Amino acid sequence: MKLTRRAETLAQCTGMGQAIMGTLFLGMITSVAGVITSINAAWQGAGELAVSNAIGGIAAQTTFLVFADIVYRRSNLEHAAASVQNLFQTVLVMLMLGLAILASAGPGYTIGHVDLFSPLLLAAYIGGIRLLAAAGENPMWQPRQTALTQREPTERESAPVDLRQLWLTFGALAMVVAAAGWVTSHAGIVIARESGLSQTIVGSLFTAVATSLPELVIALTAARRGAVTLAVGNIIGGNSFDVLFLVGSDVAFRQGSIYTAINQQQTFWLAMNLVLSAIVMMGLLRRQAHGSGNIGFEGIAVLACYFSGVALLFWGE
């Protein structure tokens, strides 16, 4: 909650905007717990847990958008937060997920023990972020403004603000999130070993949801404060960063390419993330003003897909 308030202030004081702040800073910081979990698991040889934590977190975070939509009572969240940045971020997530699926079906060629698809994924993310920044500065088109579209403040905060203090506090809160991720990774490995549950189940549901809780809290807090672009940008931006967990895990996994360790259940979950991202994008494009129970068609579809996927995951265990 403190991160959200500071991020909203920084977005206005620096002129960065909520979409970029949500993607580059909140998305990365709230993903720190997850990336530490995946890298630590891969380093200890638990490749299945590392991959499942990464891809399970994307599904959980996308589903959290529905809860933020419920909290934002004024209109459908995807209608209010429609922007070229959020649309672009969703496409970037889908591109990176597609590359991960290609890597899992690929030959597993490595340099040392790092798969050749890992630097490609990293390059796709960096290039996408650069294009995102350019699209925000010089957009070639904009979604039509309606009475329900949430507009960001166009002027920087005029009140005196200590930016240095804001950034230091922001960094300290990020370290707390990172420490929680390190503890969670160890707990997940022990749970998988002692409970008899597969690493796919533990990673996709337990550690993924646990390390994604910061995204849920930020999405809910931002939506309640009316910072809807920040809420959506944090979730979608965090999703694209979560795909990079696979790159870090591949580097830490000393048994070879981590993509060749992706099993059928994980491939199913990767495809599910593509479906969920596509549904969110349709919601951003359709811009349904109001829905049933304050959520639009995309919220109902995301909930149905996610919980159906969870049920199938347990059914196949």
Describe the structure concisely for a colleague.
The protein has 317 residues and is mainly alpha-helical. The protein contains 12 helices and 2 strands; from the N terminus they run H-H-H-H-H-E-E-H-H-H-H-H-H-H. The chain is 74% helix and 1% strand.
Structure, explained:
It is found in: Membrane. Its main location: membrane. This protein is an all-alpha fold and 317 residues long. The protein has a single domain, classed as A middle domain of Talin 1, CATH 1.20.1420.30. Helix content is 74%, strand content 1%. It contains twelve helices and two strands, in the order H-H-H-H-H-E-E-H-H-H-H-H-H-H. Strands 1-2 form a two-stranded antiparallel sheet. Strand 1 and strand 2 form a beta hairpin. Helix 1 packs across helix 2 and helix 3 runs parallel beside helix 8. The longest helix is centred in the middle third of the chain and has 33 residues. It is globular. The relative contact order is 0.25. About 2% of the residues have low confidence.
Secondary-structure blueprint:
Layout (H helix, E strand, L loop, with lengths): L1 H12 L4 H26 L3 H25 L5 H4 L3 H22 L4 E2 L2 E2 L1 H21 L25 H33 L3 H26 L3 H16 L1 H8 L11 H23 L10 H19 L2
Antiparallel strand pairs: 1-2
Defining key terms:
317 residues, mainly alpha, A middle domain of Talin 1, 2 strands, 74% helix, 1% strand, globular, Cation:H+ antiporter, calcium channel activity, transmembrane helix, NaCa_Exmemb
